[in-house]
Amino acid sequence: MFEKEVFAEPYKIKMVEKIRKITKAEREKLVREAGYNVFNLKSRDVYIDLLTDSGTGAMSDEQWSEMLKGDEAYAGSVSFEKLQKAIDDIMGFKYVLPTHQGRGAENVLFSVMVKKDDVIIGNMHFDTTKAHIEVRGAHAINCVTKEAFDTNSDYPFKGNIDTEKLEELIKEYGPERIPLVMITVTCNSGGGQPVSMENIKKTAAILKKYNIPMFFDAARFAENAYFIRTREDAYKNVPIIQIVREMFSYANGATMSCKKDAIVNIGGFVALNSPDLYQQCTQFCVIYEGFVTYGGLSGRDLAAIAQGLYDGIDYEYLKSRIYQTEYLGKKLREAGVPIIWPIGGHAVYVNAREFLPQIPKEEFTAQALVVQLYIEGGVRSVEIGTVLADRDPITGENRYPELDLVRLAIPRRTYTLSHMDVVVDAFEKVKKVKDKIRGLRFTYEPKVLRHFTARFEFVS
Ligand SMILES: *Cc1c(COP(=O)(O)O)cnc(C)c1O
User: Exposed, middle or buried: residue 146 (CB in 10 Å: 0-12, 13-18, 19+)?
Assistant: First the structure.
């Protein structure tokens, strides 16, 4: 039994949003009308929404007060200065370009740095990062440690770069074809698994030898720092801000989706230490995002991000955040639900093929589990499996990833531990009908990014 430590969220609630639980019969009807795709559900019909942790967090009173104080100037706002100052203080980067989201930051940076036939190595590229690389005719290569593929081992840093393979890849392609290496912290596509400081340092040393710049995809940098503090001996009890500063000291820059660890509902940025690179990026920021001191955001958004970066590195907050994710994961594991181990930062991943072995992968095992979880408990999760993997563009065949997963992503500061108990209860209910759950087939399949708008029906 996973005992609740005598420990609670380091905040009290001063504004609430009502959520409602509709009946199972209503949910059955609604999910059928949604074509058994939870992206087609209305959020008001969802009881606990674990679709994503992106832009779904709750801002603090201090962030809201920054919103009110945020000044709205096209150029040179005080809010922008605050953002610049926060990024310099926390990450040590002097040059900042705000963007509407993380993908906007990728677009601005890669417009300067990435060209056709280039090779961009990373631990595991996030989908939008990979897309921004491939759309330029360049190649996105994952180089994560092999430990990442053993979903049961206790290995603490499954987001690590495989440094031996990295050096082999550099020799194979030649450093001139590699404009940068991108480390995603934590590694979202690998289940929110962290990268150790030792690995960051080692990677930086290798790249220095070949004169290749290192960048962070920093969406969950604060969670990564928390894992370094709790799992890497040399950093035990070291203040989070100090860990963060050290992490970024090895990098030439970062792109960030502020919808994650900056705990805002929209925003992103590119942060750099090179004035030349900054200069080159500015023109693309102006074309795609907006003038260099607002980048598609309002002044109040910039001010909320600045405060959110500080909120996000608060040790007590991070402790409760990771505790909550772990609480859900351990309770599910106790209930006999197979999950990816160790539990990552922002989400718990359920191994659907192991849980529902009777549903063949051709019938979208994880999607079937997502649907049943909504029917039983009003919990919205998301499929990270065959539907998401799409078809091979050349053969037109379905691609079957190694694992069919259901992701339960936890919004920041939004739900309590009681809500996590509701999720566990929903799984208990699914377990009772588990052998009767049927697979799915498409009734509508869009050509690209099919998971967002596809429609399904039950097989037989
Ligand atoms: C969310 C995310 C992005 C993209 O950011 P958006 O704000 O959604 O555009 C990039 N990388 C990682 C690791 C992410 O989690």
Answer: exposed
What SS3 state is found at 299? helix
Of 52, 43, 29, 46, whose CA–CA distance to 388 is shortest?
A: 52
What is the set of domains in the chain, with CATH numbers? Answer: 24-53+315-458 (3.90.1150.10), 61-312 (3.40.640.10)
In angstroms, what CA-CA distances link 276 with 6, 110, 253, 254? 51, 15, 13, 15
* CB-defined site of ligand 1, < 6 Å: 54, 101-103, 126, 128-129, 184, 188, 217, 219, 257, 259-260, 268
Give the mutation target among 188, 255, 412 for probing the ligand 1 site: most ligand atoms within 8 A of CB.
188
Closest CA to 17 of 57, 68, 66, 62: 57
407-421 as b/e: b if 16+ CB within 10 A = bbbbbbbbbeeebbe
Q: What is the pTM of this model?
A: 0.95
From residue 34, how far is each of 40, 151, 216 by CA, in Å?
5, 32, 37
Structure confidence by residue, pLDDT tens digits, 123-158? 999 989 999 999 999 999 999 999 998 888 999 999
Side-chain half-sphere of 201: how many Cα atoms within 13 Å? 8
Those residues whose C-beta lies under 8 Å from the C-beta of residue 283, and which sit 6 or more positions away, are none
Q: Is residue 30 helix, strand or coil? A: helix
* Mean per-residue pLDDT of the chain: 96
Mind listing the pLDDT tens digit for each residue in 343-353?
A: 999 999 999 99
pLDDT value at position 151?
Answer: 85
CB 361 within 8 A of CB 353: yes
Atom of ligand 1 nearest to the CA of 55: 7
Residue nearest to atom 1 of ligand 1 (CA): 257
* Tokens representing residue 440 in the block: 């799915």
Centroid of ligand 1 to alpha carbon of 120 (angstroms): 17
Q: How far is the CA of 257 from the centre of ligand 1 (A)?
A: 5
